[in-house]
Amino acid sequence: MTTEPLKRPALTWTNAAVELAERTIFSHVSLEIEVGSFVAVLGPNGVGKSTLVKTALGLLPLAHGTVTVFGDRPEIARPSVGYLPQRHHFDAGVRISGRDLVRLGLDGDRWGMPLPFATKFSARARAAEAQVEAVLEQVSATAFADRSIGECSGGEQQRLLIAQALVRRPRLLILDEPLDSLDLPNQAAVAELIATICKEREVTVLLVAHDVNPILAHLDQVIYLAHGGALAGTPLEVITSENLSQLYDTPVDVLTTSTGRLVVVGQPDAHGGHGGRHH
Fold it and tell me: Domains along the chain?
């Protein structure tokens, strides 16, 4: 009789700790994220949400403990990961087209702005073009892909950046505050897009956010960082008035609408520490 191999989780932190400038950011953090799940990392500003993400990318070492991505060290698993850093605004003067921005994501061995392919008519280039077209269609960005990125709206820019992170067909998509600075309709649209990618493409999503409301209906798991540790579970287990009030050290209410949807109200620190990027 044969048995199927155990399914490895997408991400695992075991007794993880990070220290920066002789300060402990978090410690004794043990988390597991299942393959194909949509997970949010939440918490007050400065608690280490982006730091946790960087350990999964292999960009920041742990002081103690271990982190694995699909059972391997982050450096080995990197080709399986799509990453969207904290959003930067493209001014109107940026002339690169959305399509070219997405194409740059095909060189995914470096985080940043890689070099485009030089051989336009090679088999590799034709395959790359087909891949770019497919991902543009996936994020509903074909209509504005040939526009300069600086001329696109905030929501359009974010769709193109998500396409760039997806173009190498990753198994894990890590997004650091992808809804930041978007208006409410665009927050809802981008959240719905990410949830669709997660479910239909079976891509595991780890998303950093400071406001849970736009994504709450889509989440399978929530990780709250606070007080140097982590609280994790399903939204119903973690998103409670008692838990959030303790984590934020101030009263936070969690309400249930008539349709059964959870809504967090009175969440503190939603705008602080981000240099006025939220309006």
Answer: 11-265 (3.40.50.300)
